[in-house]
From TrEMBL:
The keyword Ribosomal protein does not apply. The keyword Cell inner membrane does not apply. It catalyses: a 3-(acyloxy)acyl derivative of bacterial toxin + H2O = a 3-hydroxyacyl derivative of bacterial toxin + a fatty acid + H(+). Its EC number is 3.1.1.77. This is Lipid A deacylase. InterPro entries: Lipid-A_deacylase-rel (IPR018550), OMP/PagP_B-barrel (IPR011250). Homodimer. It is a multi-pass membrane protein. It is found in: Cell outer membrane. Belongs to the PagL family. Transmembrane segments: none annotated. Its main location: membrane.
Length: 185
């Protein structure tokens, strides 16, 4: 099992790597980092992530194109109704990788829309507020909108759904509304 202490240590290592990455962004393994906060039915989530742009332009037309990026994340979930008991807490660590498609302007500023489906690994089985996920492996899909400012900040809002795709039951899923702040190196 992945403990909360290990999760804290992992986030510390991620922060150190991000600091080093900022110094070598031109040839590094990531071009941006994001901090996100999400809320769902009796559960909250905090997540840090790094992204690597694909630097492709598909369907380019009228100053816009379809591109994308890889998103590697580490999250902490805190449920407040463990095993459907109000006030009982469940703490989870979640790591994931997601390929994301983004439709944006060619200069990558202004409004965008995006969608992604990725793979996630949970530290234990989720069981909160009558929502149960019976496998530690979960798909995480999201749709979102956002705005990229000229100062390299990207502010976004997304809806995210976690499910194992009915690999095993029960599979009631977990949903989040997420606010994201991302900074490009």
């Amino acid at each position: 099992m992945f403990s909360i202490q290990k999760m804290g240590a992992s986030l510390g290592v991620a922060a150190t790597l991000l600091a080093g990455q900022a110094c070598a962004a031109d040839n590094g393994w990531a071009d941006s980092a994001a901090f996100e906060f999400g809320t769902g039915a009796k559960v909250r989530m905090a997540r840090v992530a790094v992204q690597k742009n694909w630097d492709v332009r598909w369907f380019a037309s009228h100053g816009r194109h379809l591109g994308g990026y890889w998103d590697l994340s580490a999250a902490y979930w805190r449920g407040t109704a463990y095993r459907n008991v109000p006030g009982q807490h469940q703490n989870l660590a979640v790591v994931g990788i997601t390929p994301v498609l983004r439709y944006a302007r060619d200069d990558k500023l202004g409004w965008y829309g995006e969608a992604g489906i990725g793979a996630n690994l949970f530290s234990e089985l989720y069981n909160n507020d009558d929502n149960r996920l019976s496998t530690a492996f979960q798909f995480g899909d999201h749709v979102g909108i956002g705005y990229v400012l000229p100062n390299k900040w990207d502010l976004g809002l997304k809806f995210q759904h976690y499910s194992n795709g009915s690999i095993k039951r029960p599979n009631s899923g977990a949903n989040f509304l997420i606010l994201s702040a991302r900074y490009a190196f």
